[in-house]
């Protein structure tokens, strides 16, 4: 009697055999395995990171050691540098970077999880930022007078009479207003956080949404306004909720582009709290599109920055996006 024709099984035997087979795992075991893999991935990605110590003897960014410098060479060839125990995947080092016009005129804007955070300074400062923050009263008065003179020149150049009644005090008023619009240059993360980081056994999403932001486009010096939504998954460290709004305010009160603003807030939180994940979404309207150029009054711009679990786990990212869109 002929044997029945061989029919290969839909599922290979090496998958269904054994207690460790994925198909034999129940839901609880699968969830536990997923959590273990996730925690291992987080720990690997955070390799070399350190808890923030604002008052440590060596500061937040100690100098690279000689041994670290030696490790940068393998077989006589340079490899990626190690900064603060982390591998600089871009090969970027502030001390050795070429002084190009770009690097001297604006801050380095990282796109990896190795940000340039200076807690003792001003966090991505521009040239002259520290001078403004540490200025004496006489220097502040001199700066205000210089700015007022520049505004008077602008009024003359557009065809106005700065001496007429309506514009007589406008240079001084606008100079003071512009200094307020950019007051973020006089703030830093150390002063804003002010020790409001607490240990708490919480590992679910924390979201503060609809934070109003007002900033100036660095390309045209006209406003862009909107809302910022911030979420993070704590890793036994939480921050005072009002500090999230203040961090958003600090970075927005500078000459900005929306993409960099979004990234700065996310990376600052990532460095301070070292959470399991961070997400920042910004929705804003740009007056450089509304009042000039294409003049599209209804156009809005949305940018996002996701780090950690927010970036690697689709379900977590989707939960955050659903929560911020809930009315």
From TrEMBL:
Organism of provenance: Periconia macrospinosa
Bias (Polar residues) ranges: 14-24, 102-115
Gene3D superfamilies: 1.10.286.10, 3.30.1130.10
The organism's taxonomic lineage, starting at the top: Eukaryota, Fungi, Dikarya, Ascomycota, Pezizomycotina
Key words of the record: Allosteric enzyme, Folate biosynthesis, GTP-binding, Hydrolase, Nucleotide-binding
UniProt region (Disordered), positions on chain: 1-36, 102-137
Pathway: Cofactor biosynthesis; 7,8-dihydroneopterin triphosphate biosynthesis; 7,8-dihydroneopterin triphosphate from GTP: step 1/1
Role played: GTP cyclohydrolase 1 is the first enzyme in the biosynthetic pathway leading to folic acid.
CDD domains: GTP_cyclohydro1
Name of protein: GTP cyclohydrolase 1
A Pfam family annotated for this UniProt entry: GTP_cyclohydroI
């Amino acid at each position: 009697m002929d044997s029945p024709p061989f029919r290969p099984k839909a599922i290979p035997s090496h998958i269904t055999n054994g207690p460790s087979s994925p198909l034999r795992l129940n839901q609880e075991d699968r969830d536990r395995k997923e959590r273990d893999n996730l925690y291992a991935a987080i720990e690997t990605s955070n390799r070399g990171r350190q808890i923030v110590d604002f008052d440590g003897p060596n500061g937040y960014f100690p100098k690279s050691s000689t041994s670290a410098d030696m490790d940068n060479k393998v077989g006589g060839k340079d490899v990626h540098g190690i900064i603060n125990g982390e591998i600089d995947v871009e090969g970027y080092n502030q001390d050795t970077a070429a002084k190009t016009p770009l690097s001297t005129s604006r801050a380095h804007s990282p796109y990896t999880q190795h940000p340039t955070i200076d807690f003792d300074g001003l966090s991505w400062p521009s040239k002259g930022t520290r001078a403004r923050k540490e200025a004496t009263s006489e220097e502040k008065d001199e700066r205000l007078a210089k700015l007022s003179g520049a505004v008077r020149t602008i009024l003359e150049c557009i065809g106005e009479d700065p001496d007429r009644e309506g514009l007589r005090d406008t240079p001084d008023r606008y100079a003071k207003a512009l200094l307020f619009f950019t007051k973020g240059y006089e703030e830093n993360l150390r002063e804003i956080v002010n020790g409001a980081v607490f240990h708490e056994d919480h590992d679910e999403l924390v979201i503060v949404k609809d934070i109003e932001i007002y900033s100036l486009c660095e390309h045209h010096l006209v406003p862009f306004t909107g809302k910022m939504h911030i979420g993070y998954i704590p890793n036994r460290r939480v921050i005072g909720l009002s500090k999230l709004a203040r961090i958003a305010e600090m970075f927005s009160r500078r000459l900005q582009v929306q993409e960099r603003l979004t990234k700065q807030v996310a990376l600052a939180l990532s460095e301070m709290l070292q959470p399991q994940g961070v997400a920042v979404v910004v929705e804003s309207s740009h007056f450089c599109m509304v009042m000039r150029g294409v003049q599209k009054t209804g156009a809005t711009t949305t940018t996002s920055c996701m780090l950690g679990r927010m970036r690697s786990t689709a379900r977590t990212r989707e939960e955050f996006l659903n929560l911020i869109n809930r009315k």
